[in-house]
Structures are given as structure tokens and as C-alpha cells.
Specification:
heterodimer; A: alpha+beta; five-stranded antiparallel beta sheet; five-stranded mixed beta sheet; 65% helix; 9% strand; rod-shaped; B: alpha/beta; six-stranded parallel beta sheet; 11 helices; 13% strand; globular
Chain lengths: 593, 222
């Protein structure tokens, strides 16, 4: 992603080249002007020098800032050709004439600049046609003019005259005027074509594109106006004085044009490099806003769409509207690529948008989308882990219940049958054998102990009263049987989801067991309360405190159990100030029941 | 005497039926679920219904719920609930505030026919029975909490028998004590537990139960 600031900073290797280039340009301009002055060329030397220099300077600057953009090179070429006429006199006649032809065709470069501004690439077929035609025609027209100029008709004593007469192929005054006429008409046509192509670009441009083009309007208008004026004056066969003024005006206009163009170029470029920042700002300021509308706003392209490919291969924008796979918009869309090279989406944008701005936007969008996709993935994984934990706890609870039931309905039932059998045996043995009778009594007593132990075991695994009568009754039964004196602060009788009741019960059971074992407590309390859609259970004491969760207190297992229902467990146990274990459970998630 | 048995464990039910039959009690009906228990009881009109607390389909408290329903439909019907649970909660659920002719007994009492038959007969006669183990389990915890104010072992024995719905004279016979001794124990118990004096055995059961279940029971012993 390119976030380089416009300027030379960070590119030291190019600096010497640029300095050498600038010196050469200056030398080229000053030298040419010296030639022009000493050889007696007509015209305003200062204006000529300045406007040529303006192109050279603007070109160099643009190359320094955006070397890959053609505009800098075009402007530089224009400046070089501007002075080439003067240097040409040192050449042999034929090359001199050819250089003159090429140099005089420089107007086509301006057409080119106007139609590729600011991106540096030709965008429409009309533009391409106009640019190609203007190059072709300029070269042809000047070649024709040079070829048909009749030196003998010229009243010219200057050295300068020689330069324009060297390509003396078919000297003919009538042929020359015909060429001249054709040249003027077609120049007007080229100007009209340029304006037309420009108008077409303007119409298809997004607001941001128009903002960039607006500067060019002024430059093109200025230059076109002077060219048009010259052609009209030529039609009207105006005097040399008029041409002199027009030449000056053209020089001034041409002096301003490159400066305006470079200014426009830099404005557009700064806008594009600021896209990422803008997008980031927009996303921070309006997190709920869609990326699509944020980017659309920054690029001033309300039609901007972020197309994403669904699993079935179809393309959809952020609003879910399907985009046909063969849609031309999709073909010209900018791919949105993440840091790992995967294509996340395609940015469908206004073709008039500056390409580097679109690339910057796509790069930013790539990071944001990648971030979002990672976040979604993480959230999905977390949800899956939570669901799986809840399932584990639910399955564990179900298993505990099943074991408890099996103990009651299986093992205990058999022990009861055995008790009845023993009773029968006792009755039958009563009369004759006191020793056997005694043994049977002992066996019966053992059996009753076994039944009681089995009952205690089953209750520890999963108290039936919790299923039968709910949390409050189960906790009360727990407290009834506890050797601790427990104050019960609130006991709502409402039933809650089974997983929540079980988790809450075991929090209190475990806490009471811990208090009994470790706390040295005088005062113990239990609180069960429903507050604002939450169940809060609390077991506290005024004992030693300093309960260590890692120390096998069973609190860690409880924490997991509570978390599986979406609740939280906190243990407050400062040394010497008692322990409070507090668990809260959301009661809105009814799917846990 | 005519009895209906409701228990889904066939072996146990058969054994129980035989125990009762051996004792000269007529078992007029046996059912293995509670779906039409009310109809059966209405039709057979037994002196006592003996029902297991855990019955199909969920094996939680179907038997207890059925017992309460039948009592609502037939207020005079004597019911003895057999249970595996020692929690006082179930006893309260069953006895409510009209304990006449209701009994809650742990299932393992079937090992001792004297105890079981006694409970069946007393319930049939309109008495109230709470399994002594349910009472003593809670009392044991209470005395562990507060040894100073705890009842003496003898007093606990007396209280358990009171909870079983026994009269003073029955307690005398059971503990081989004189009338006067038992009376003084009962007075001491009522004083210590701050219970309202009640002469009637069934009321005494309720009073003891209320004490066991009162929210402040653990706090008042402090």
C-alpha cells in the first residue's frame, strides 16, 4: 500500500538524477534563448523563455513527484521542443527542417496532457482518437507547410528565415496557403475534439474526478482560446501586430498552463494518498456505517460498491444485492486484496476516479475486510467453544441425574428387596436359632447403613430435591443437614433453567463444604436473589479468608460450570476477612433449560 | 383392613403385598403407575393407599403429587407415602396443614414389619406419621451446630417419636419410661424449641414439622 507523501522525501537515489535533469533543462533553455537573441529571432524573448521554462520546471517537478505518470514527461517534452527550434539552426539543413517540423507539432502534446489528466492514462476511445489524430495531423501539417514554403516570396534578411526554408520540396505559394488553410481548419477541429473528449470525461466523472478536472478546464480553456484565436486571426489575415499580441498571449497562457496542470496533479494525488486516512477516520467516527458507504463518501462516488463472492460463486454488494458475474462494472473493478494475498472483494467504482486513489481505497478496504473476517472467524470459534462447553455441562448434568436415578431405582431397589428377604428370613428363624437370628439382625443393620450411604452418595451426585423442588428447596435441605449455622438471606421459590439451578446449587454446596473445612467461621450466610434478569447466589463467611482457587478448593471447576451457563463467579477472600463466593447467572438465555 | 399398593417396582411391590397379607391386611389392588390411581382408589375405596414417591414417567415426585391430588378429591382418604428422600421438604408437601391420616415413611422400613404395620394401622386410624429418621437427621445437624442448646439424646428420641405421631403413653411404652418422665421431656422440648403447646398428637407432629421447616430454625437455635 502506498502512503508516501507527495515529494522527494524517502527517495534519495532519485535526487541526483533530478538535479542533473534540472541543470540540463536550465542550460537548454538559457542556451536556446541566447541563440534566439543573437540570431535575431523575432518575438518576445522574455515571455518565450519564461513559458518554455515553466513547462520544463513543471515537467521536472511532476516527474519527481509522480514519475510513473505520463504528464510530467509530456510537459518536459513540450518544454524541450519549445526551445528545440533555436538549437536547430546548428544542425544540417535536413535534420534541422525535421526538428522544426517536430518542434512545431508540440501542440499535440498539450492535447495529450489535457486528455490524460490527472491519471496519466487515456480513458476513453474518443480521447484516444483525438490524441492520435492531433499528433498525426500536427506532424503532417507542419511537414506540408515546410515543404511548400516558397523561399523566393519571403522578404527576409534574418538568419531566422533560413531555418524555416530548409525543407524546400515543392515551393508554391498556392500550395502553402492551401496547407495553411487546412492546418487552421483541422487545428480548430482538434481543439473542438479535445473540448468534446474533455466534456465527455467531465460528464462521466465522479465529483472527485470533476474536482480534479476543474483545474484543467482553466488551463485548456486558456490555451485553446489562444490557439483558436491564432487560427481565426490567420483566417482573417490579420496583420503582424495582431499576431505579435496573440503570440504574447499564447506564451502567457502557455506559461500558466503547466503550473496549473502540476497544481491539479498534486491536488489529485494528495487526495488519493489521503484516502486511507479518510477511510480510517470515517470508520472510527461511524463504526456502524458500512465500509461501502464510508469509501463511497471518501471517494465522492455514491455508486461505489464492494462486491463479495459468496460460496456459490455469485457476487453481492454489502446490501446483498446480486451483481451479475458478466457485469462490465465487475470487469473493471479493483480487487480488494488482504495482506496475505487473498482476494476479499472487488471494488466497483466510477471509472473516472483516479486509479491511485482507488488502489489506496482498495488497499485500505482490504485491511478492514481482512480484519472483519478474522474477527468474525474468532467470534464464530468462540461461540462454538461456548456452545460446546454448555453442551458438556448439560451432558454432565444429565449424566449425574441418570446416575442418581440408577442408584435409586436400581441399586437401592435391589437393597430394599434384599431387606424384605432378610425380614422374611428373620421371621422364619425367630423361633429355633437365636445365633442365626442375631446374625440376621446384624446383616439387617448393615443393610440399612448401606441404604443410607447409597442415599447420601446419590444426593452428592445430583440431589433429587433439586430436580423435584428447585434451587431454594435444595439449598434449604442442604442447610438443614449442614453442621454449620447458616443464615439464609433470601430464597425465591421460582424455578430456573436446570443448568442454572444445578450450577448455583453446586456453588453453594461447594462453598459450604469449604467453609466447614477451612474457614473457622462464626457466621455463615447464603443468599439467593433474582436481580434485574439475573440470578445471584452468594455464600459468605467471616472466617480466615485467603481461599486459594488453585489449591484444590473445587472453585475452579465451579467457575467453568458457571461460565458454561453464561454466568460469572467471583471469589472475594482477603486474608483474615472472610470469604464471599458470588455467582451470577443471566436468566434471559432460556435455551439453557 | 383393605389396602391399595402403588409402586412401579414389581418385586418390591409383591414383597410388600406379602408382608401386609401375612399380617392379615387385605391388599385389594396393586398398580404400577399413577395415571388412573384416583379412579382405582375411588372404585376400591381402601382404608389406606400406600404409594411410592418415585413413579413413572419421570420418576421424580409423581407418587407424592398423586397422593396430594387424591387427598384433595377424597379428603378422608388415608395415604402412606414411601420415599427414599429424607428431606423435610417432601414431608411438608404431603402433610400440608391437614396431617390427619397421612404418613411419610422411608422405604427401608419394610425391613421391620412391626414399624411398617404400625404406621399403616395408625394412618388408617387417622393418625400422622413422619419417619423418625427424617426428624433425627435434621435434629442431629441442629445439635451439631449448637451443642449448648441442643436437646439431650433422650429428648431427641422423644421428639422423633412425637413426630411419628405417637401419644405420650406410646412413647412411655417405647422408651420404657414412666408417664411423668415422658411428660417432663415433652415440656422441656416444647420450651426449648419454643413450640406452642399442643395436646393432640397430630398437632404435635405439625408443630415439630413446622419447627424443622421454619426459616429461622437455624437462627433461633443460636
Amino acid at each position: 500500500m502506498s502512503l508516501r507523501s507527495p515529494g522527494l522525501a524517502g527517495r534519495p537515489t532519485r535526487v541526483p538524477l533530478l538535479i542533473i535533469g534540472s541543470v540540463l533543462c536550465l542550460g537548454w533553455a538559457i542556451g536556446a534563448e541566447l541563440v534566439s537573441t543573437t540570431q535575431g529571432f523575432p518575438g518576445n524573448h522574455l515571455l518565450e523563455f519564461l513559458s518554455g521554462l515553466a513547462f520544463l520546471g513543471a515537467g521536472m517537478y511532476a516527474i519527481a513527484v509522480v514519475p510513473r505518470n505520463a504528464i510530467g514527461w509530456l510537459l518536459l517534452s513540450y518544454g524541450v521542443l519549445w526551445f528545440a527550434n533555436f538549437w536547430a539552426i546548428f544542425l544540417p539543413p535536413l535534420p534541422e527542417a525535421l526538428v522544426t517540423v517536430v518542434a512545431n507539432s508540440q501542440g499535440a502534446l498539450l492535447v495529450h496532457v489535457a486528455l490524460v489528466f490527472p491519471a496519466g492514462r487515456i480513458a476513453t476511445r474518443l480521447s484516444r482518437g483525438v490524441v492520435a489524430f492531433s499528433y498525426l495531423w500536427s506532424l503532417l501539417a507542419w511537414f506540408g507547410l515546410e515543404a511548400t514554403t516558397d523561399r523566393s516570396t519571403w522578404d527576409c534578411a534574418h538568419q531566422f528565415c533560413r531555418a524555416t526554408l530548409s525543407l524546400w520540396l515543392w515551393p508554391s505559394a498556392s500550395a502553402y496557403s492551401a496547407w495553411d488553410m487546412a492546418n487552421n481548419v483541422l487545428t480548430l477541429l482538434i481543439v473542438a475534439g479535445t473540448v468534446g473528449a474533455f466534456w465527455q470525461r467531465w460528464r462521466t466523472s465522479s465529483p472527485v474526478g470533476r474536482r480534479d478536472l476543474r483545474v484543467l478546464w482553466i488551463a485548456v480553456a486558456l490555451v485553446s482560446l489562444t490557439y483558436a484565436a491564432r487560427s481565426i486571426a490567420s483566417f482573417a489575415r490579420a496583420g503582424d501586430a495582431v499576431f505579435g499580441v496573440l503570440n504574447d498571449l499564447q506564451a502567457i497562457a502557455q506559461m500558466l498552463a503547466p503550473l496549473l496542470i502540476v497544481y491539479g496533479l498534486l491536488t489529485a494525488r494528495m487526495a488519493s494518498s489521503a484516502v486511507s486516512t479518510f477511510v480510517a477516520d470515517a470508520r472510527t467516527a461511524h463504526p456502524s456505517q458500512s465500509l461501502e458507504s464510508a469509501l463511497g463518501r471518501v471517494l465522492q462516488d455514491p455508486g461505489l460498491r464492494i462486491a463479495r463472492q459468496a460460496r456459490d460463486g455469485s457476487w453481492r454488494d454489502e446490501a446483498g444485492v446480486a451483481i451479475p458475474a458478466d457485469s462490465p462494472a465487475l470487469a473493471t473493478a479493483q480487487p480488494v486484496v488482504g495482506s496475505d494475498g487473498t482476494v476479499h472483494a472487488a471494488l466497483i467504482h466510477d471509472p473516472g476516479l483516479d486509479a491511485s486513489a482507488v488502489r489506496a481505497a482498495a488497499a485500505t478496504a482490504g485491511l478492514i475486510l481482512e480484519n472483519e473476517s478474522l474477527r468474525d472467524e474468532l467470534a464464530a470459534q468462540l461461540a462454538e467453544v461456548q456452545a460446546s462447553r454448555a453442551r458438556l455441562v448439560t451432558a454432565g448434568d444429565a449424566e449425574r441425574k441418570r446416575v442418581e436415578r440408577d442408584l435409586h431405582d436400581g441399586a437401592q431397589q435391589r437393597l430394599l428387596s434384599l431387606a424384605m428377604a432378610l425380614r422374611t428370613a428373620r421371621r422364619q428363624s425367630d423361633a429355633d436359632d437365636p445365633e442365626l437370628s442375631h446374625t440376621l439382625e446384624l446383616a439387617n443393620a448393615e443393610l440399612l447403613l448401606a441404604i443410607d450411604e447409597l442415599r447420601t452418595l446419590a444426593r452428592g451426585i445430583h440431589p433429587a430435591i433439586l430436580t423435584d423442588a428447585g434451587l431454594a428447596a435444595a439449598v434449604r435441605a442442604l442447610v438443614d443437614r449442614s453442621p454449620l449455622e447458616v443464615e439464609m438471606r433470601a430464597l425465591p421459590a421460582d424455578r430456573m433453567p436446570a443448568a442454572v439451578e444445578a450450577a448455583a446449587y453446586f456453588v453453594i454446596a461447594e462453598s459450604l463444604a469449604n467453609i466447614m473445612k477451612h474457614a473457622n467461621a462464626e457466621h455463615v450466610w447464603v443468599r439467593i436473589d433474582t436481580v434485574g434478569g439475573e440470578l445471584v447466589v452468594e455464600a459468605g463467611d467471616d472466617g480466615d479468608g485467603g481461599a486459594d482457587e488453585a489449591g484444590g478448593s473445587g472453585l475452579r471447576g465451579l467457575r467453568d460450570r458457571v461460565a458454561a451457563t453464561g454466568g460469572t463467579l467471583t471469589v472475594d477472600s482477603p486474608h483474615g476477612s472472610g470469604t464471599t463466593v458470588r455467582a451470577s447467572f443471566p436468566l434471559v438465555t432460556a435455551d439453557l433449560s | 383392613m383393605r389396602v391399595v399398593l402403588a409402586d412401579d417396582a414389581v418385586l418390591f411391590r409383591r414383597g410388600l403385598a406379602r408382608l401386609l397379607t401375612d399380617a392379615g391386611i387385605e391388599v385389594v389392588g396393586e398398580v404400577s403407575d399413577v395415571t388412573n390411581l384416583t379412579d382405582v382408589v375411588t372404585r376400591l375405596n381402601p382404608d389406606v393407599l400406600v404409594v411410592d414417591v418415585r413413579m413413572p414417567p419421570t420418576h421424580t415426585t409423581e407418587g407424592l403429587v398423586a397422593a396430594v391430588d387424591i387427598r384433595r378429591a377424597r379428603p378422608g382418604q388415608a395415604v402412606l407415602v414411601l420415599s427414599q428422600h429424607v428431606e423435610a421438604h417432601y414431608v411438608t408437601e404431603l402433610l400440608g396443614d391437614r396431617p390427619e391420616g397421612l404418613g411419610y415413611l422411608l422405604k427401608e422400613r419394610v425391613a421391620d414389619d412391626v414399624e411398617l404395620l404400625d404406621a399403616v394401622r395408625r394412618v388408617a386410624a387417622g393418625g400422622s406419621v413422619i419417619d423418625p429418621y427424617v426428624v433425627s437427621a435434621i435434629l442431629a445437624a441442629q445439635s451439631a451446630r449448637d451443642p449448648v442448646n441442643a436437646l439431650t439424646p433422650r429428648e431427641r428420641e422423644v421428639l422423633a417419636l412425637m413426630a411419628e405421631g405417637r401419644s405420650n403413653s406410646a412413647i412411655c411404652a417405647r422408651l420404657f419410661l414412666t408417664d411423668k418422665t415422658v411428660e417432663s421431656h415433652v415440656r422441656s422440648i416444647f420450651q426449648r424449641l419454643d413450640l406452642p403447646a399442643a395436646a393432640d398428637e397430630n398437632r404435635r407432629v405439625l408443630a415439630v414439622l413446622a419447627h424443622l421447616r421454619s426459616p429461622g430454625s437455624t437462627a433461633t437455635s443460636a
